[in-house]
Amino acid sequence: MEMVSRCRLALLAAGVALAACNPASTPPPGPDVLIGAWRSQVHATSGAFTEMKGFEFMYVFNAGGTMTESSNFDSVPPAPPAYGIWRKTGAREFEAKYAFYITKPPGSFAEIAKGGGWEPSGYGVLTEKITVAEHGKSYSSMLAYKLFDAAGNETEGGGEASAAGSRIEF
Asked: CATH number for the domain including 108?
């Protein structure tokens, strides 16, 4: 009888350990966790992005402190996603800094026909202060962005924005 009880305890412990390792059984991330995928609506209040209506970002915040951002305007003009870093600054408070490339349109169709295209013309840097809601499924943020030419000199068009995001979930 004692052997059966020990075996049942061992099976129970193994089952608990397996359930803890199963991502489908783990609870959603807590409010202090930024790690995961997010979608946000961005409202520029100054700078080059103020004319963009319906501006959205999609983010992935990785466990190691890196992140990727892409917007629904990445094709206007064509530009790759932004890449950056993030850190926790307080209870439910985070800061992200990420950069993206800026391209310029070809001067003529003849340039495209010769194999040319949207050439690099600089980059932008965004700094975002994020506050995650207590339930951990949404956030609000303030962004500041600066634009730079290909030589690294700051150019006109930088500004500020606010955003409201929600966690992407099943």
From this structure: 2.40.128.30
Full domain range(s) for residue 118: 29-167
Residue 114 inside a domain? The answer is yes
The mean pLDDT value for 85-94 works out to 95
Burial classification of residue 10, based on how many CB atoms lie within 10 Å of its CB (0-12 exposed, 13-18 middle, 19 or more buried): exposed
Q: Does 24 fall in a domain?
A: no
Rounded distance, CA 158 to CA 124, Å? 8
Please state whether the predicted TM-score (pTM) of the whole model is above 0.85: no
Quickly count: other Cβ atoms within 10 Å of residue 130's Cβ. 24
DSSP string, 116-139: ---EEEEEEEEEEEEEE-TTSSEE
